[in-house]
Amino acid sequence: MIKINRLKKNYDSKKIFNDFNMNIEPYEITCILGPSGVGKTTLFNVISGLTDYEGGEITGIENRNISYLFQEPRLLPWLTVYENIDIVLKNIYPEKKRNEVITHHLEMVGLIEYINNKPEELSGGMKQRLAIARTFAYPSSLLLMDEPFQGLDVKLKNDIIGSFLKLWEKDKRTVLFITHDIDEALKVSDQIYIIQDNPVKISQVEHIIDSKFSRDIYGDDYWKIRKRITKILTSQL
Amino acid sequence: MKISTIKNNQNRIVGITLWLITWQIVYWIIGKDIYFPSPISVVSTILTLVKSPEFYVVVSSTTIRVFISFLISAVLGVSLGYICGINKKIYELFEPMMVFIRSTPIISIIIIAIIWFSSSNVPIFTGFLMCFPIIWANMVEGIRSTDKKLLEMCHLYKVSKIDIFKKVYIKSSIPYLSAGFSSALGIGWKVVAAAEALSLPKYGIGTNLFNSKTYIQVPELLAWTVIIIFISYIFEILVKISFKKIEG
After folding, report:
1. Structure pTM?
2. Most confident listed range (A173-177, A222-226, B140-144)
3. What's the pLDDT band for A237 if we cut at 50, 70, 90?
4. Is B18 exposed, middle or buried (0-12, 13-18, 19+ CB in 10 A)?
5. Residue A27 maps to which CATH number?
């Protein structure tokens, strides 16, 4: 389990996190849901080591390999689909193993036909699927996702979430998923931490995994939880 | 694509023809070969020069000088430009020196070089001093323009430093390097010829330009000028082709 204990993080004089506590369960998808600008990406940066923090501790991530899924696919435009995954695996596997891993993950996300194409030849959705393949091809035990489905249309979003869940079901990892979109959170997460700012606090935790929630967007359960979360978020405004 | 390339080539041929016609008309107006020779007499001078065995020694001597000065500039410009591009403190150390070199008149550099070096090394030194800051500045710009998000991704996925250099920095700097190499090469030819004209090595296009001026052989003067333009153009095309190949 990853434990965040009494995290303190300031930007200039503004306290973003002050004694913030949170647990991330292993092999589950934990979502942090909150309005834009609340400090979600800061938490992502703190966990990934991109930003220092002033106090507290984060345990359970020592010596762990972490993979990342960002808002934008972050692909190298001059490399092929294959090479874009290969570059992150070069220090980890020998060539033969890399070839197997890459081929397998490209098959899983339906991009095997595009193995020699450049990212500019792919659609927006395909690029994000390639980024997902890279995330799972990398041998990590923790996966950090920073609003990776933002800005996609509904159909594309469903497709990409589908690709993500398909890979995750086959190869379960601890996931920390950051979003401000309630539907994304409900479709993907096992538990949802709803946060508010000044400084960041957890308002509520929704244990989706424990409920008999089916993720069926037409079901009553879905709308009950959605309504409850919407109420919490709007009351913060 | 092919149609537009053919059209571009057609436009170029029309452009060159128009300028040649203008040149011929100006020649008719002036009417004195000693001041302003006709394109025909320049072409016939080039043909005469090409037939002499010394021509190839002269052209290859200048080409080797340009090549050496360009190669040193490229190696130092790219490596130092990379270091300065990723480290602001080192950039600030080198920037005043580059401004100083860029602002110094070429003639001063040539005269100082004549005092310091042998006549055949003066053009190499001068060419290097002119090309190096251009390549350096373009490399710095290319490194700085590298997408920070891609670098962050590589850093988070622990991509090796060599791969980050080769596959991220160099690849994203290619448009800047291509522009820098082209303009450095163009300037390199001009500067090397100018330095040769002042330092007078035994063989060199610049030396021949100076001799043509001394003996008031204007057709020969223009013939050597056209030869420099032609070889410089060929080199520029070669640089562009090489960069296109690197870009894939």
Report:
1. 0.80
2. B140-144
3. low
4. exposed
5. 3.40.50.300
* Tally of CB atoms within 10 A around B135: 25
DSSP letters, B121-188, are: THHHHHHHHHHHHHHHHHHHHHHHTS-HHHHHHHHHTT--HHHIIIIIIIHHHHHHHHHHHHHHHHHH
pLDDT at B94: 93
Distance from CA of B149 to the nearest CA of A (A): 7
- Residue B71's CB: how many other CB atoms inside 10 A? 12
* Residues A59, B33: Cα–Cα separation, whole Å: 88
Residue A195 in domain: yes
Residue of A nearest to B157 (CA): A88
Q: State how many domains chain A has.
A: 1
Its domain, for residue A202, covers 1-64+165-237
| Structure token digits, residue A120 | 């500019």
Nearest CA in chain B to A144: B156
**pLDDT of A3 over the 80 cut:** yes
Residue A16: inside a domain: yes
CA distance linking residue A105 with residue A82, whole number of Å = 10
Confidence of residue A213 (pLDDT cuts 50, 70, 90): low
Among A41, A79, A88, A117, most B C-beta atoms within 10 A, so best to mutate, is A88
Residue A146 lies in a domain: no
Nearest by CB to residue B158, choosing from A70, A74, A91, is: A91
Residues of A in contact with B160 (CB under 8 A): 90-91
Mean pLDDT score, B9-27: 88
**Domain membership flag for residue A32:** yes
Distance between CA atoms of residues B15 and B7, nearest Å = 12
Chain A residues interacting with chain B (CB cutoff of 8 angstroms) = 48, 50, 66-68, 70, 72, 74, 76, 78-79, 87-88, 90-91, 138
- Residue of B149, B152, B154, B156 to mutate, testing the A interface (most A Cβ within 10 Å of its Cβ): B156
* ipTM confidence score: 0.84
**DSSP secondary structure of B27-65:** HHHH--TTTS--HHHHHHHHHHHHHSHHHHHHHHHHHHH
**B151 CB within 8 Å of a chain A CB:** no
Considering only CA atoms, which of A46, A62, A47 is closest in space to residue A10?
A46
Angle CA B66–B67–B68, to nearest 5: 95
Please, which residues have CB within 8 angstroms of residue A219's CB and are 6 or more apart in sequence? none
- Rounded CA-CA distance A184/A166 in Å is 15
Alpha carbon of B160: minimum distance to chain A alpha carbons (Å): 7
